[in-house]
Amino acid sequence: WYQRRVRGVDVVWSYLLPVLSPVFALPGNKHHNTITEGLAVLTEMCLKLPWAKFLKLLQRWLKDLAAKVEDKTTVKVVGAILAGFHEAVEPGSKILVTIPTKVLPKMQEFLTKKTTAPVERTKKMSIAYEEDQVAVQAPIAISIVHLITRLPEEERQTKLPPVLLRICNTLRNRAMDVRDVSRQTLSTIANSLGPLYFGYILSELRGALSKGYQLHVLSYTLHHLLIHMDLNPADIDNSTLQTITEICVDGLVGRTAADRDRGQDNKNSLPEAKKCYSSQCLERCASVLAVSQLQLLMDPVKKMVLETTRSKTISKIEDVLKCLVAGLLKNPLITPTVSMVFCYRLLNDSITIERTQRSAAVKAPRKTDIYEIPDAPKRDGVKPKLIKTSNAHLLHQFSLQILSTLLKRGVVTTKEHSELLDPFIASLTVCLSSPDVKTQVLAVRCFSQLFEQSELLPRLCDNVTQLTKFSFHVLKNNTRSTNSGHMLELIFSSFKILTVILREYKDFTLSELEVKTLLQYVADDVHNRNRQATAFSLLKSILSRDIV
Question: In 260-314, at which residue ranges do the beta strands (DSSP E only) sit?
């Protein structure tokens, strides 16, 4: 076996490599496919070479690269050789001494060494020169990191920071193509290092991109890394998650958001500033976080919801909450039980907060003294009163949306989760009296889905009378012809839940006036194509109960 292996190494070293080498001297623009296949073959050959011959081959090509740094093919050859590095680096071995002292210093020189620049150049020529510079340095940085990952932890901590800092500083460049290459390089490096180093990469990014237009580049780069990284559930640690949420919150309500809303020049010249990527970043985090990190993610979001007053920002926060719902429902670690406990606590907390805020806003009117002389009118007129409204209904909607989705998908049933669902009835009843129409819609929808379950909850049956009174109140005081949006949806939801109650809950009875009211609605809806299905369902439920 040993003789066969030695003979194979000799064949690769003495015959195959000399045959392959001329391929890399061909013009890259005409023979791109040939060179690409040659690089793949070179990597396979290097996997068979022992360390002595591997080092000799690498040093030969590093010497060529030092003579012509701008040659992209030579850079790719060095990367292909390092991709074939297969030796185990053990403490005290010759390899461990050679790589940090001889190989890495030479390669790190290429990250700072500049290619030959034109003596006289225009702005376009300068941008093209910078693009070529980064295009050459990016593969070298990836190759260096690939080599560093094979070293012990102590060596990694000393050799990795200069490489990451160099790539992060390149993201400051004003040229979009340069930033794109740097982002792609950083993404490849992040995947090579793994989630353990993701927090360190973010800390280097925040240090390099800390002001002005750089904040938009930071937000966009974070989004790019999260989308392209291979993350498994619970891969993100607490400090990394906290860093991500801080960047996302700044993109929604901080300096980055203020700069974007002002519509300054960078909005037109910087593509990263044209859109806020915080929602997608938080959705990605929600899909991979651990159960213990739920509160860590929601605390800054909850604070942002309760402290925001601008309508434009509130619409952004609504989008964030929708994305968080989608992310949490994708997370395999967030089981139905965890989801329901989390939703119940958040819903009750937000109801308490809303009550506290509204009770504090309603103050007893001050009685005027008839003997008191009023103040003289001011020149600027009477200032309008500032009425602070509560945004706690957004948290209601967030919790109810998760519960409604779980019920709709059949993941949560009254048969298996009755003890967890029963406490929700009281909170859902409170949501019916919410001043926010969308919250009422979601509460009615959850009630409908609970009535459609195979087993009815005891506490649900006790609230049938109150629920039907609410539905008739909605139908009586609102007409579908003059309403639209969430109010129209509430009317249809009220219409539907009456249908479900009549069909599923046999102990419920209607008065003669209520039956006439429903039949009148059925008569109106039968002639409307968009509402015929709902009308016939209600009519079927009425006839099945022998009410008429």
Answer: none
